Amino acid sequence: MADGNDLLALGAAPGSIWGDEAETIVYAQASGNGQSLIFRFSLNPANPPQTLSNRIVNCFHVIDEDDIESTFPSRSEMRKAIWSAVAKAWAGCVGDEKNLKPGVIVDINTNDAGDVTWKATQDPLFEQYLDLLHDVQPTDLAPEGNIPSVVDISEVVILDKISGRSGAKSARLRTGEADSSPFVFKGIDFQTFLQVHDEEGEYSRAMLETWKRTSKLVAGMTSHPNVQPPPKYLVAVSGPGGKMIYIGHLSTFSTKGYLSDVIEAENEGETQIDRQKKAKWCHQMSLALAHTHYVLKTYHMDIRPQNFLVDEQENLVLVDWEQKQVTAATLAPEADGTRDVKENGSKLVYTEYAGPERSNIPDDGVQNGWNVFPEWHPSCPLATELAEVFSLGRTMWMLLSQEDIDFDEIEHPDDVEVVWSDNGDPASWAKMVDRCMEKDPNKRPSLTEIVKFWEEEVVKLDTSS
C-alpha cells in the first residue's frame, strides 16, 4: 500500500517525519479534520529488536543495518509502517479533546500480539519550549501601534512545512470567515522546537531571534503592492497562569504558490509562460527590489524564484525577509564573503580579504562564515544594491528561459552556466538581463534603470495587444 493511504482513507494526511539528536526517537505529524497531532516511536532496548518502534528508529537513524529483522528493507517501507500505525491510532486520538491540547504527544507501541497501542501524554519538553518563548512581547514582533490581532494556537491548524521555505508552514484558521483563506505560519511551533532543540539550545535561540527580527521588519515596512504585507495575526499559546506566550505569526498566502512553482509547472507541461506575463513579472520584481533599497533602505539578501509569491491576481510579491541565508545560484560572485569593498568616487573598488578567518553569522548548524550584506550596507549601500541587481538578473533569466535549477547542486554562483534559449523573446530582454549579471558590479545597471526598462517593455506589449 502506498505511503499514507490508510491515513488518507480516514480523512487525514501524512506530514513530516523527523528524528531526535540522540537517535532514539522518530516523530511523525499528521493532520486532518481540523486537527494536527504529533506521534512518537521510541527505541526501547528492553523490547525485542523486531518490535515496530525499534525497527522504525533503527531504520530512520540507520542503526543495525545488518540485522534485517530489526529494521526495514527501505525507507519507503518504513514510512508505510509509520503511517499505517498512525492510522490505527488516529480515530481514538482525535476523538478525545484532551489529546488535542498543545504539547501533547502520542506514543505508539505494539503489544505482545503485535497490535498497535497508543498513549497520549503532555511532553516534558513542552515546558522548555514555553520557557524559550516566555519573554517574547508583541513589541518584539511589530512596531508599537501596528501590532496585529492575536489568535490562540487552538484556532490554528498548522499543516506542513512549505518546501524550500525557512521555517515556514502552511496553515489555516479552524473557524470564522477566514477559514478557507490560506496562511503561512512563521515562528516556532512545538513541532519545530522538537526538531531543532538541543542541550545547549543555541539553534533554537538563534531561530527565535531571527523570527523576532524578521517579524518586526516586515510589520514595520512601508507598504508596496509587490512586497510582503505585515503579518495578519500573531499566534499565541496559553502558558502557566494563563500567560499569553507568543509563538509565531500568520501571513497571507496564495494558492498559486511561488514563481518557481509556475516555472516548474510550465516546464512539465512543455509550455511557455505568456510573454506579457514575463515582462510584467520582471517589472514587478524590479519594483519590489527598488522599493527595498530606495524606500525601505535595506536589502533582501535572497532574491530567487522561490521567494516571489504569485498572488491571486497573478502579481508577484517578494517574501521571506529573514536576511540570514543566501542562495549560491543567485548570489553575486563578489558577495561570497571573500572580498571587501569601498567607494572611490562613483566607482566601487573590491579587494580580496587576506586576514584571519572571520565570521559574523551565528553558528546555528546551518550556515556560518562572513555575510557581507550587513557589513556593506551601512557604509556602501551601492554595493548591496548592485549585488542584488545580479541576483535579480539571475532570477529574471530563470523566468525568461524557464530554467528549473537544482539549487542544492550549486555551491558557488560561478557554477551556474547561463544559456539563452531561442523562445522568441526580444533580444533586448536578454541584453538587459546579461547586464545585470555582469561580473564587474560597476558595469551593472541601477535598479532605477531596470525598472524604467521593464516599464517601457510592458507598455509596448500592452499597446500592441
UniProtKB/TrEMBL annotation:
It comes from Plectosphaerella cucumerina. PANTHER family: SERINE-THREONINE PROTEIN KINASE. Signal peptide: none annotated. InterPro entries: Kinase-like_dom_sf, Prot_kinase_dom, Ser_Thr_protein_kinase. Residues 136-459 form the Protein kinase domain. GO terms for molecular function: ATP binding; protein kinase activity. Pfam families: Pkinase. This is Protein kinase domain-containing protein.
